[in-house]
């Protein structure tokens, strides 16, 4: 695994461990010579992981829409900053650049990015591992919701297993390195009456 995209918040949140774990992940990526691909901002958890990766001599590629650069949140010390025209183009570019994805705590944007990557994987558009670093149970309710989707017949168990989850960085990286994508794609079945 050469490059990992990390989706995370542009704020720090209320739990100090979010920032601590973001920095710990940044250091881990640098020490394993894994390039960090992320949203290109210098604020919140995004800035924390980028700064820590750079501090440990790692490489960081940021992908940022032009309109966000104008709001002065662009990180100006990255290995490379790629400017794009839209949020959709940003996700597409981040997908093209990476071998896998990790989601840290975040808000709507983080969830939207995570679920788009999961959807693309479910549809067979990529076979990349997608991990959630579940810091202090941040994603516990989402995980229960995913399990409930399976129970209610709206998500196949095979696709549910695409979501790799751990509260431990080393364990999550190992899960990602050994991930095997599902061999069956998504299809719609008719309910018999």
List keywords for this structure.
disordered C terminus, 193 residues, globular, seven-stranded parallel sheet
List low-confidence stretches: 187-193
Measured as a percent range, the helix fraction is: 40-55%
Overall geometry: globular
- Taking the alpha carbons of the first and last residues, their distance comes to 47 Å
Category from helices, strands and their pairing: alpha/beta
- Mean pLDDT, all residues: 93
Number of strands: 7
Strand content: 15-25%
Description:
It contains eight helices and seven strands; from the N terminus they run βαβαβαβαβαβααβα. It is an alpha/beta fold and 193 residues long. A seven-stranded parallel sheet has the order 4-3-2-1-5-6-7, with helices on both faces. Helix 2 links the parallel strand 2 and strand 3. Helix 1 packs parallel to helix 2 (44-55). The protein is globular and about 45 Å long. The termini are far apart. The model is unreliable at 187-193 (pLDDT under 50).
Strand and helix layout:
Layout: E1 3-7, H1 16-31, E2 35-38, H2 44-55, E3 60-65, H3 66-69, E4 80-84, H4 87-97, E5 100-103, H5 108-122, E6 130-133, H6 140-151, H7 157-160, E7 163-166, H8 169-177
Parallel strand pairs: 1-2, 1-5, 2-3, 3-4, 5-6, 6-7
